Amino acid sequence: MGNRGRHSAADETLPHLYRPCEIAEALGCSEWWVKEQARQRRIPFTRVGGAYRFTVEHFAEIIRAFEERPLQSRESEPQGTVAPRLHQSHHAVPMTVPLRAKRPRRVSPPDSPPTVA
User: Is the CB of residue 29 less than 8 Å from the CB of residue 63?
Assistant: First the structure.
């Protein structure tokens, strides 16, 4: 009888597949968020038997995908270069729009008595 352990040589070469709850715990977000991002194809994943699974490489790519780089100040940039501005909406000055009230849809004429339905 051969001395066969619980782990075979194939266990050493196959990547470990993480569940969405494990990825969510590591990222500090909800399991729902991880599944929704995978469903919307915003993050890489593997689907095994209809379930989302993630490798270590997927996890690293997810972190890089949501990474935000600091903006460099103009004083620290060499002359003639412009720093790329990603996600300008976070740093742009919000435009203010004056609010106006809409006219009500059902306005009874001022001289007629109110109608009873």
Answer: no
Q: Residue 55 is part of a domain; what is its CATH number? A: 1.10.1660
Each residue's pLDDT, cut to its tens digit, for the chain (117 residues) gives: 555 556 665 557 888 999 999 999 999 999 999 999 999 999 999 999 999 999 999 999 999 999 998 988 656 555 555 555 544 444 455 567 777 877 877 766 666 666 665
Distance (Å, whole) CA 84 – CA 86: 6
Give a yes or no: residue 102 inside a domain.
Answer: no
Examine residue 59 and state whether it is found in any structural domain, yes or no.
yes
Round to whole Å and give the CA distance between 56 and 1.
37
Task: Examine residue 27 and state whether it is found in any structural domain, yes or no.
Answer: yes
Residue 31 lies in domain: 14-68
